[in-house]
Amino acid sequence: MIFSQNAGPEQVVFSQDNSCGLKAIIGIYSTALGPALGGTRFYPYETEQQALQDVLNLSRGMAYKNALAGLELGGGKAVIIGDPRTDKSEALLRAYGRAVASLSGRYITACDVGTYVEDMDVVAQECEWVTGRSRANGGAGDSSVLTAYGVFQGMRASAQWLWGADDLEGRHVGIAGVGKVGRHLTKHLLEAGAIVTVTDIDPAAVDRLRAAYPEVQVSRSVETLVSGPVDVYAPCALGGALTFESVDALRAQVVCGAANNQLAHPAVAELLRNRGVLYAPDYLVNAGGVIQVEDERHGFDFERAKAKVSQIFATALSVFELADEQGVSPALAADRLAEERIAGSASRHPVEAA
């Protein structure tokens, strides 16, 4: 993703509660299109500065993602600093809910890495501005289902653009990261007749996947997967997967995955283009989850949300066409489309307290 240096964020909030160990940062990048929606990442950052940088990057990405998806939403993101396996508690989640509530609707939260549907149910006990809750509590459930479906639509569009048909049968796809999204994506690909090779830093995640889909092949590392004979590389773990070094080693013709902020440096997008690798911008193809949780705000209907996510196919083709016409990378073309929509709402006032 390539951004203007003089843009956002509108607001950054640090929240701490020593009684339960909460240390959280909430970033609101833009409310030009509506309240800033974005998930909550629970992660053991080594430093507060690393956590802050993640908030700034991710909130900006959410603003562009929501704009390109055609949603009436701005962009925001939050992080809770800590290890979710040992630090997460009901008291901490409720304290975090109070922190979100203090923003009076300028920020709407949801699940992300380290947080789950059941966590959002707890947060919602203290705050009404929560999506991604369980169906039993009026929510849409696990957003990874439609996130994976959107990435699959992005792959189909990439195949259409590059190979002249959206059929993935016989194509070899390498997936790095088989958590919630990677698992659902694997299912879509196998049903489409693709060959799938996976890798993950957690061997248990790979074992669970192969128990369900024994035909899946396994690569011993991300580096081996990247340099292997795959047609499509799908980064589906944390950000920064596309470095100068990894792109130099890449043998795939398409990069299309669910991870946020895949470009370790903006110039990597141009390197991919120069190497003839089609990059499907991450925040374009992984927008299925935010489309799902946005639909929750209107009384969730799965088929309605899925139909919206299906439009990622057409949007991706539009981005590829614009990039080709302007002689730029798809990453830059996607940014320009998102920026145009955000700028078109410049006459609107930022969202005030609801």
UniProtKB/TrEMBL annotation:
Question: Which Gene Ontology molecular function entries are recorded, alphabetically?
Answer: oxidoreductase activity
* Keyword Oxidoreductase among UniProt keywords: yes
Which CDD domains does this one have? NAD_bind_Leu_Phe_Val_DH
Key words of the record: NAD, Oxidoreductase
Q: Which residues form the Glutamate/phenylalanine/leucine/valine/L-tryptophan dehydrogenase C-terminal domain?
A: 141-350
Which top-level group of life is the source organism from?
Bacteria
Q: EC?
A: 1.4.1.-
Tell me yes or no: is Oxidoreductase among this UniProt entry's keywords. yes
Please report which protein family the annotation says this sequence is part of.
Answer: Belongs to the Glu/Leu/Phe/Val dehydrogenases family.
Q: What is this protein called?
A: Glu/Leu/Phe/Val dehydrogenase
What organism is this sequence from? Terrabacter terrigena
